[in-house]
Design goal:
The chain is α/β, with parallel strands linked by helices and 305 residues long. It has helices at residues 5-8, 14-20, 38-46, 82-88, 105-109, 136-142, 145-156, 161-174, 180-187, 196-212, 214-228, 242-254, 285-290; strands spanning 28-31, 52-56, 72-75, 94-100, 229-239, 273-275, 298-304. The protein is built from 13 helices and seven strands. It is globular.
Length: 305
């Protein structure tokens, strides 16, 4: 598959998310999810000659979209290490961080990566970083029935998680589950026809989140961003499912993953951020028609106090 910036990923809520950063001409910014580089190019367009942008992505394919600009530095790494990398580059404070948490169009459309149930012969891989870590096949073939049920319930919010886990364990006792088709055949009897695609998408989402440790990585990214942001700096985050959206909302509202509001001795809130848009921003109808994957997108923006 030929990968270009145009085919890798169509940027979602492009104007709204970059507007949310309130870019300062000479500021330092991070695009935590570089992907096809669409958001990064718009940040650079608004930056002055003294500004700088760091783009993070752990997928080797994303490197093919690197922006040729002296004001841009590409970091091939999981965004959970953003604080460590900024220390490496000698950056103490940043003026803004953008994260588009959606899986890129490229990942869904590349059948060799196993992110989509559309390709039955695709290997169950689902790793964002193909160099290391366990695959989705490893998860479905080695996790205990209880572990599988927990993953499917917590990360896929599937009501039939326990029955689904039992079917997976039964199927793998006959032969290993190695392709998307194998997995679909193992659990397909549980899905009603009218909900089959939605439930299968939830199943694949749950495995993807587990394989890539997405929730843990997001917690570390948001905690790192809060520490790195200068006073008045902005955090602009696009989410796609309820789990990550809840985590982002809690961090922006309270400064912790649980959403626990804390106060000082005088009863004043100690939350480090101020939510800029109390009403979540979603793509307009025109964008949803152009890019169906944007339909579940939600944008939240916060400012460092």
């Amino acid at each position: 598959m030929i990968v270009t910036a145009e085919t890798y990923h169509v940027p979602v809520l492009l104007k709204e998310s970059i507007d949310g950063l309130a870019i300062r001409s000479g500021g330092v910014y991070i695009d935590a999810t570089f992907g096809g580089g669409g958001h990064s190019r718009e940040v650079l367009r608004r930056l002055g000659p003294q500004g700088h942008l760091y783009g993070f992505d752990q997928d080797a394919d994303a490197e093919k979209n690197i922006v040729s600009d002296d004001r841009f530095t590409f970091v091939r790494s999981n965004f959970r290490y953003v604080k460590q990398w900024m220390r490496y580059f000698g950056v103490e404070k940043i003026d803004g961080l953008l994260a588009d948490l959606g899986v890129s169009s490229h990942h869904f459309d590349d059948e060799t990566r196993g992110f989509s149930f559309r390709f039955g012969d695709a290997p169950l891989d689902m790793r964002m970083n193909k160099r290391s870590g366990m695959t989705a096949a490893d998860v479905v073939n080695t996790y205990s029935e209880e572990q599988l049920a927990d993953v499917l319930y917590l990360y896929g919010e599937l009501k039939q998680a326990r029955r689904m886990a039992a079917l997976i364990v039964k199927a793998r006792s006959q032969q290993p589950i190695v392709t998307a088709g194998d997995l679909m055949q193992a659990v397909g009897t549980l899905f009603r026809q009218e909900r089959e695609k939605k439930d299968m998408a939830k199943l694949f989402q749950a495995l993807r989140i587990e394989v890539n440790h997405e929730m843990e990585s997001l917690k570390e990214l948001l905690s790192g961003a809060v520490e790195l942001l200068a006073d008045g700096g902005r955090l602009s985050v696009i989410t796609y499912h309820s789990l990550e959206d809840r985590l982002v909302k809690n961090m922006m509202r309270a400064g912790n993953a649980e959403g626990r509001l804390e106060q000082d001795f005088f009863g004043r809130s100690t939350a480090p951020l101020r939510i800029v848009n109390n009403k979540v921003i979603i793509p307009d109808e025109a964008e949803q028609q152009r890019n169906p994957r944007s339909r579940s997108a939600k944008l939240r923006i916060a400012e460092k106090l």
